[in-house]
Amino acid sequence: MSRRRIRFGLIGLGLMGREFASAVSRWCHLDTQAPVPEITSVCDVNSNAFAWFRDNVPSARLAVTDYRELLASKEVDAIYCAIPHNLRRQVYADILNAGKHLLGEKPFGMDRKANAAILQAVRFHPDLVVRCSSEFPYFPACKRLIQWAREGAYGRLVEARSGFLHSSDMNPRKPVNWKRMASVNGAYGCMGDLGMHTHHVPLRLGWLPFSVYADLQKIVKERPDGKGGTAACDTWDNALLLCRARDRETREEFTVHFETRRMAPGETNTWYLEIYGTRASARFSTKDPKALHVLENMGKEQGWIRLETGSQSFIPSITGSIFEFGFSDAFQQMIGAFLEEFAEGGPRHPFPNVTPGETVLSHALLTAALESHAARKAVEIRLDSES
Q1: Domain 5-132 belongs to what topology?
Q2: What number of other Cβ atoms are within 10 A of residue 156's Cβ?
């Protein structure tokens, strides 16, 4: 029996657009009865981007530079959208108003006002599946860590740390791009671009920050503009957010660190999550992607155990269980979680993509972080009545 197909249009054909297409092209890798994705249309303001898709995605029969043409197509059910932050308020709303499901890149809007506008469009279209991207929780070791946390294996929470560390800007001669410009990237800087990666798991586990003290850094103030001159860099390079949070289950307070860095010496692309408790602790990092580290508290003595987790994530795959797992696998698992929203009988994925409501919480945290840094003090994280 043939499976249902969800026809995708891609808006934004850069690195993530190509990653999406690659994941779809090897969909047989996943052992799932969820609908099958098919890319039927692509869009980018730069028509030179079409060549790669013509060569590698024969199902994409429509290639346009105006996204409205793509949204008008009856051959598109859902959109994967990866465009600069300042464009998302309008484009995300237009996608939803055109009746298309949306898997959008983070953040959902470059600021809280833009996020509110997108969420208004979401409320107008409750029949549509709308989710925000976040790949890293789908590493098998992180899956085990999430299960461990949901079981309350830590006892009482002492502290959680979640971070994303880049070295992408360590070279001060790297030419400026839109992620270094607040007018396009937004005032959040690295927090907007990387923050949801750090927020996804803690927010899903019900660890809700209510205050934040933020330490933000602008390290490189200008970069080459690619035209022989220089251009100002007015976004935050690095951010450390020290939060007080409350466990939704126990109502106990504890500390959460959120760390996002574009200038992290010694790193390339490291995502980590660490959970420390009175009974036990655990940690995962993409630097050691096959392992979950668990600290057992034996009273007077403690000891870390390294558990090899293999290749299997939330959705089973054809890969042998002893083999390795990487970013492209996590990205495919993220799309799989989105597609399982359309499964017959309703969603059944144990760890769905970021929800619109969670993007509201993320924006509230980052807005408060900007206020905290400016005031040099801890500030309350204010949520509206619908958060």
Answers
A1: Rossmann fold (3.40.50)
A2: 12
